[in-house]
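Hey, sorry to bother you again with one of my protein questions. A protein chain has come my way and I'm curious about its shape. I'm sending you its amino acid sequence along with the backbone structure tokens. I owe you a coffee for this, so here goes:
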Amino acid sequence: MTTPGNLIIISGPSGSGKSTVVQRLMVDSALPLALSVSATTRPPRPGEENGRDYIFLTDEEFQAKRQAGEFLECKEVFGRGYWYGTLRNVVSAGLSKGKWVLLEIDVQGALAVLQGYPQAITIFVHPGSMAELEKRLRNRGTETQDSIQRRLDVAAEELALRHHYTHEVINDEIDTTVQQLCKLLVQYQGEKVPCSKN
């Protein structure tokens, strides 16, 4: 009998470095982590594979699943007309295999998922201040002034809701942050396991 896994939710403002943290965590952690693959209506980019990067759905398929209640959470992102969502069966299948299913989703999505999985391990990652966040967004050199302002407005709303998360981690330096997350997650493991594979 496989012991069910844990659900981990990691959120944080755009520019907080959470995607990099999650990628490193997937490689470094000794826990049986499985990154949940989101569904989307946006077309695949070059090199992306269905089922690996995203579950690519037509608008009709996505809305049919939405009407049928198959999403733990879903939303239209940044007004681009594309929908993204977390499929209930993807998460439950991973958990039933004993995997620690990791969701990298926004705060509103996290609050929706918590209604179905109130026992989820929730972690909010941020750079420590709005000033630092703005600096990181500007240093990307890929954002317009309007885009930066929109992201900062959303970030302020998300930071105001971080009290809904069990853990808060400031991402100052990537190696330190990943190590901190490894140690944090190991606390939820019944028997002792090493923090990282290294």
About this structure: The first strand starts at residue 7 and ends at 11.
